[in-house]
Input
Amino acid sequence: MRRFIHLMFVLLLPVIIIEGSLFNGRYKKYMKKVYKNKSDQVFGQNMDFSQEKYVSQPLDHFDPLVTGSLKQKYIVVNDYWKKPDGPVFLYIGGEGLLSGFYLEDGLITEMARTHGALIVGAEHRYYGDSLNNDSLELSNLKYLSSQQALGDLAKLHQVISEDYGGGSNTTWICFGGSYAGDLSSWFRIKYPHLVHAAVASSAPVRAITNFEGYNNVVRASLSDTSVGGSQQCTGNISSGFEEVGQLLKNKSLDRLQKDFKLCSPLKSENDYGAFLSNLQDYISGAVQYNEDGTDNSVEYICKTIAEDEGSPYNKLMHLNQVFLESMGETCLDSSYEQMLQELNKTKQEPASGVGIRAWTYQTCTQFGFFQTCDVKTQCPFSTYLGLGLYLDICNDVFGITADEINARVNFTNQYYGSDTPKGTRILFVNGSIDPWHSLSVLKNISDSETALYIQGSSHCADMEATSADDKPQLAQGKLEIKKQVSNWLSSSGRQRLTFKLI
Output
């Protein structure tokens, strides 16, 4: 069965690629295929699967009367560890299966090699292999939260310290990207006695119900000539969606079904939303990750749009057809009811790690992040995609009302500090192309809580290994991250290693 839940939190390069609260399944499937190829190459050559382990975690870290547990997966890479004084680099997983790709071939790997660090990768509860058979039942979802995830990290810290030694004399630095970047900064803030410093890449630390800013940045990035965009490209996309909106308004639904090869007729306003989120999400995803030289980039989107010499509407039809063919699909999903059926599944596909239900629950109960296209914003898509679709999903699937969503989002910001958190030794890294940067920390808060803003860079690009293909701004950004980590280790007073940047 196809999935089409709108791309909401393309959080993901740090795990296998999962796209947020209401993320589109077609795009997720495409991205998972791309990064699975990368991961398989690394695993096949280097990864020692004997280092994949499990730790028993309590269901509830905060209520001793709650019984029950779940097994959390973690991966240890000790190829570079200089026993017993080498630091520990904690790589935090997000809303999906924990991939060994970044552990074995990422920027963290280069720094571990330089500093003789032990790498520990922690999978997030309720994702990947870290869940029970009944975890996704509604009665058990209450144990899924960022607070419980931080409790898991604290317990894992204890286990690693006992199994590998070091204890209080070992310096821990944590890393994470996207939602896991949030967790990285929050682990440093809430458990400062356990972790010395944190790098938070593409971390949307400000929760928000109506995330209008996402598509504002999408428009700006599509117009950015430095990444292959243009005003003409943006204009064609915007005009194409305007005509789609007009056809929806005029109830020309049969024509839309034919032109965009919809899998089922459009019957309701929420069907309109499902259709539009699928139609735009290939564009949004390409902007967010913007992999230069691939079909997952702004340049490719704009070139594909330009290939068709017809009207903007025809250009949009052409882009949709190109993506359908690239996925081996014959039609575009547009049924809200089918979306609900997918979200109500309480059994995860074996070994898929796809956290559709779990992540949607987290957005409804903690973060919002609902990407809308409201009137009087810079959104290049259709204003038919409003907040109502997402509020209906939260209510129809989990029984959570709009007032409850707003209250929980406000609590998240009060609990963690939103985009002005109070912490020390935290580095927030963001890219100008990434739409999620609008919810992160973009300027220094203090001398020890700093921000690195990389022009022309995309979502979590700074977490990948250095490459000869890196643009100068990204290459410099990665060097700055390495320098900061070296400075933290030098100032910790616990490490006695000689550092040499690579």
About this structure: The longest helix spans residues 25-45. Residues 432 and 455 are 5 Å apart (CA to CA).
